[in-house]
Amino acid sequence: MLSRLNLLKRHLPLSFGPARPTTPALSTSSLAPCSAPFAMTSASAAANLNFTKPIHTAACLIIGDEVLGGKTIDTNSPFLAKFCFDLGIQLKRVEVIPDDEEDIIEAVRRMSARYDFVVTSGGIGPTHDDITYSSIAKAFGLKLQLHQAAFERMKRLSRPHPMQPNFDWDTPSPGLTAKLRMVEMPFDENIPAENQALFVAEDMWVPISVVNGNVHILPGVPRLFERLLQHLKPFIVHRLSDPEGKGTFRFLFSTPLPESAVAPFLTELAAKVEPKGVKVGSYPRWGKKRNTVTLVGADKAYLESLVAEVEAGVQGKYVTKEDEMDLPDDKEHIYSQ
């Protein structure tokens, strides 16, 4: 046992931030930096810029074989979509990919380069197929490193499973090795440690790992994903187009006309309001007698000024809910476009 402890000590990495007392038998893994163009110097420079630039656009990367295989329904991307909408961030892309290193590397590099705010979901648990941390580290030429503060919080805020009665935080074991996978995170030695992992909730040990300045790595468990994302808002609101957080507004109009009848008016309207940053949408409601037209934009006063014009143009009514004007027998009617 003593020789095993000595062997593990030699693999103990430097922790994120100031040194802390550590458990003597911790180990971690590392990845060799990848080749250019993601060399450490260029990656660090890009990351420092990404930490501070305004947030206008966002992308979401859902990682998990279970989603693609139909075992799990993705609820995290819809939650992120509403989060972004409420803050006035344009969510431009949502992708679902497998637990595959090459797919993760390609997708996260591309998204980080194109969008201001990238959120990943899934693949940061204790099992062999949880490869998100290692894959994203490799994507940007970084090593995995034990996040000591996260490990200390894990020990303080989590409890071993009842089916692991002999588990001990100070004794090397397969269970401890598995838990360490969740706190071995990508680390760039050229960037302040506090910028690379955010503890957004006092009662949660799980940090949000931030890589390349704009990639935010979140767990796939919906209740954790949602809570961490909600608590992330104070960390990014100052970088929004509207720091007051007024967000985006969606105006709904209920119309009895088919889409083909309102299309000419909406085409003209869309061209008129596009310079003001307003988008016009039309959505058929199959099986209902009324369809929905939407206006989406950040200028609430301007949207309000369009209400009467749109109501007349679609022979409809401004509503707060899509089904506000539905009648009991609407569900029996098959609507024609």
TrEMBL record:
Pfam families assigned: FLAD1_M, MoCF_biosynth
Molecular functions per Gene Ontology: FAD diphosphatase activity
GO annotation, biological process: flavin-containing compound metabolic process
Domain MoaB/Mog as annotated: residue spans: 59-239
Domain of life: Eukaryota
Protein name as catalogued: MoaB/Mog domain-containing protein
Native species: Penicillium argentinense
